[in-house]
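In response to reviewer comment 3 from the previous cycle, which asked for concrete evidence that the modeling workflow produces usable outputs, we include below a single protein chain processed end to end. The sequence was submitted unchanged, and the resulting structure tokens are shown without manual editing.
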Amino acid sequence: MKASVFCEPDRGSYTVEAALSLTVFTACLMALLSILTVIKTEAEISDALHETAMELSQYSYVYGRTEYLKEEAEERLPVLQQLLGSDDEGFSDLALTGPAVAKFLTKENFSKENADEWLKKQGVEKGYEGLDFMDTQVLMDGKTIRIVANYNLKVQTFGLFEKTLHQRAAAVTYGLLPTDAALKAGRQKPAESTIWQESNFVRGRYFAEKVRSAAEYGAPVKPGQGIDLYDAASGTYGEVESINLFLPSYATSPSGESSADARAAAFTPRKEAVEKALFGYVKGLSKDISTLGKEVTLADGSTVKTVQPRRKILILVVPEEVKQNKSMKSLLSSLAEQAQVRQGVTVEVRYEQKALVQNREEAQV
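The workflow returned the following structure tokens.
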């Protein structure tokens, strides 16, 4: 009797097919996990940006009113001291267009306990420091808050291939400004209005753009880098700031004066307050210059290498009526001389638009 021989010709092919199928399945699974990581990372960053935008929207009212509500703002929102880096100098009209503010708040608003470590694990190059907030714009048009973060994400494909994605996350909202709040409360704007009645956000951007467009001290710089103007050939770095010297914070109001000129001339400047504000700007300019990298991005998108500063200039805009006040002009002249000697900063005072208008107190409500 012959032994039976059973042949299994398909066993080998099944093994090969199973191996190939498993490989494809594993690759697909890893690809899916990579996609999920990308989506998860973007969602976490977007959520943090959204919280930052909403927070700045809430803060914008207080920011816009800091000239009138300094003590209240410092008491109610101590985090603003960190944002402004003011230490013991108090609040000032800093250009909060910024990447610096967005970067600070977004990290605070991250749902993960250690944002930097978590982002690195997800493949974000340089972790939290790899988030570029340069395209962030806060109230640059007077109403919109746009928080933007660009970053490079190395896709985790577990050794199958290497891929780095350039990602962009953004959150947009509107700021609650003092003007908006007044209108919502049913109050009307005064019949006569000037730029000095706008929030310091709007006013600061208005004067900055006016000076930048003239390009008198150099080319306009892309917002978010601190400085407003830069000229590599002359080593000039410039910033534009403004102070309404007729506000109660900076001057004592007269009584009994009828004509506008007589009233403007009768204001008594608060020397310490004006000095504190002006030197806050002077120190801010020097600090912004020191923190610049090797290149400056101009408004047209081109980049220019930074050079050793040979001229640091602060363009200080004040109301037109300051011309009528000898005490104010003398104080500004004296402080400008001190800024040049102590900090090496040239202060140029410009007089722009009238600030003393009818129904002024209604405008400040």
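Residues 66-78, 81-97, 181-191, 359-365 have pLDDT under 50 and may be disordered. We consider this sufficient to address the reviewer's concern, and the full set will be provided in the supplementary archive.
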